[in-house]
Backbone:
């Protein structure tokens, strides 16, 4: 039995040894589509869908797709998109990691010094981000704990609300009408402004617009053009689908954008007006959006009730890895009341250490490498969550993730990364 196991280990090692990693372009798209299908699909006849995904409407540029091959057969793939993330007012080049997968017959082959297929893909994918000088890498994980192996921490707080239309706020929404093709430039401008105001939001590229717009015919798109003439700014948009699979008809909001709290209120009023056709609406909002406060019933019940009430489910999604601490932090601006200095040691998943001083002067951040002993030593995973504003340093200390001995001055400084909008990304990849 034991001899059998060690043979298995040896077989695993040998099978991984010969892995060849190469970045490919259009010439290999058929191979990539087949590999993605073998990673994710339930059946081989779904291949055309994966081929379509690499057709004319796509975000991948030449050299963005990585293939792992063994003895000439593709066994895994990942994709490295070039994007921009907005963090505390700074626009930062960001890698968007997508389509990480190992084909169903080549998984969990790591043993000892030899990493598994996806682990090798992820290491090479992160190397690509460094080569492209992208200080941040972001992804939407299938399992957060898997990507923690590669230094990614949660960087988004989302909440899905299900609200009976009967308790939505009623009132004026006169600017609402169906989307027209001529709205596109103003829609893009509204979305871009939202991204700049937000935290950890990622810009919607022209290619991404093409992808999202190609899906619109599955539902309907309405915009709030206010009381302006055709060339005024748009105030909100909503892309909605209907779901009649349950006991009652639900409006599913697949995408929304609003340029002010007033515009958001009018969006909810518009949805309220649909109550003769639908019972409830499902919408995902930033985790701290106090939607129940503007409903006609503010209660999120603590007990069984017999009146219409909202339900809310918080969830995590995007994770980020900080690859270049100086460039990422120096692009950000903390609240102007923030001044102070601390020395940090970040334990990187590759086994290295990043040691630097964070010096904040009226919100402006300077990062200087140092050999001084650190005031705080933390993992890259926890650091990513603190910098993104997903986890307040004080809260991390409350649950024992930061040592009780962390100085109040260091905690106060790190808490400032959580001041401002909650991390929430409207883009998906
Ligand atoms: C998730 C997935 C990519 C993993 O692929 P894989 O090649 O089996 O991954 P690896 O072998 O690198 O890692 C698997 C596990 O082995 C561990 N491992 C890898 N190399 C190792 C080594 N040398 N020694 C010990 N453990 C090792 C990893 O840490 C990981 O551990 P975990 O399960 O505790 O997180 C693969 O299962 C997949 O494609 N699933 C489809 C899921 C999906 O939807 N993907 C995302 C869409 S974006």
Residues:
């Amino acid at each position: 039995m034991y001899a059998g196991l060690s043979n298995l280990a040896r077989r695993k090692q040998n099978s991984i040894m010969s892995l060849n990693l190469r970045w490919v372009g259009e010439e290999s798209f058929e191979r990539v589509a087949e590999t993605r299908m073998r990673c994710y699909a339930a059946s081989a006849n779904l291949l055309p869908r994966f081929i379509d995904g690499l057709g004319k409407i796509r975000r991948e540029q030449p050299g963005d797709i990585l293939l792992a091959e063994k003895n000439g057969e593709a066994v895994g793939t990942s994709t490295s998109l070039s994007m921009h993330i907005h963090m505390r007012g700074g626009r930062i080049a960001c890698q968007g990691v997508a389509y990480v997968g190992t084909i169903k017959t080549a998984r969990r082959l790591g043993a000892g010094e030899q990493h598994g297929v996806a682990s090798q893909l992820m290491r090479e994918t992160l190397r690509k981000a460094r080569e492209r000088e992208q200080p941040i890498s972001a992804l939407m994980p299938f399992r957060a704990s898997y990507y923690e192996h590669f230094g990614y921490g949660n960087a988004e707080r989302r909440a899905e609300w299900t609200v009976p239309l009967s308790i939505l706020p009623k009132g004026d929404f006169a600017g609402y009408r169906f989307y027209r093709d001529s709205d596109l430039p103003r829609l893009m401008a509204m979305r871009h402004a939202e991204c700049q105001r937000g935290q950890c939001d990622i810009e919607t590229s022209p290619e991404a617009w093409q992808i999202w717009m190609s899906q619109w015919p599955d539902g309907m798109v309405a915009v709030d053009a206010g009381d302006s003439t055709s060339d005024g700014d748009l105030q909100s948009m909503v892309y909605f689908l209907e779901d009649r699979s349950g006991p009652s008809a639900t409006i599913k909001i697949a995408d929304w954008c609003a340029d002010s709290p007033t515009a958001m209120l009018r969006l909810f009023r518009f949805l309220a007006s649909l109550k003769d056709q639908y019972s409830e609406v499902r919408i995902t909002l930033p985790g701290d959006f106090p939607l129940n406060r503007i409903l006609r019933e503010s209660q999120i019940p603590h007990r069984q009730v017999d009146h219409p009430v909202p339900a809310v489910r918080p969830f995590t999604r995007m994770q980020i890895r900080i690859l270049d601490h100086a460039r990422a932090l120096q692009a950000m601006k903390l609240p102007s009341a923030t001044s102070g200095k601390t020395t940090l040691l970040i334990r990187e998943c590759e086994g290295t250490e990043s040691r630097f001083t964070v010096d904040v002067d009226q919100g402006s951040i300077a990062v200087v490498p140092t050999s001084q002993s650190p005031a705080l030593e933390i993992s890259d995973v926890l650091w990513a969550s603190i910098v993104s504003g997903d986890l307040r340093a004080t809260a991390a200390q409350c649950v024992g993730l930061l040592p009780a001995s962390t100085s109040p001055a260091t905690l106060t400084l790190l808490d400032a990364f959580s001041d401002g909008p909650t991390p929430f990304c409207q883009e998906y990849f």
Remarks:
- Residues 39-40, 99-102, 107-112, 114-119, 142, 145-146, 149 surround coenzyme A (CB under 6 Å).
- The chain has twelve helices and 19 strands.
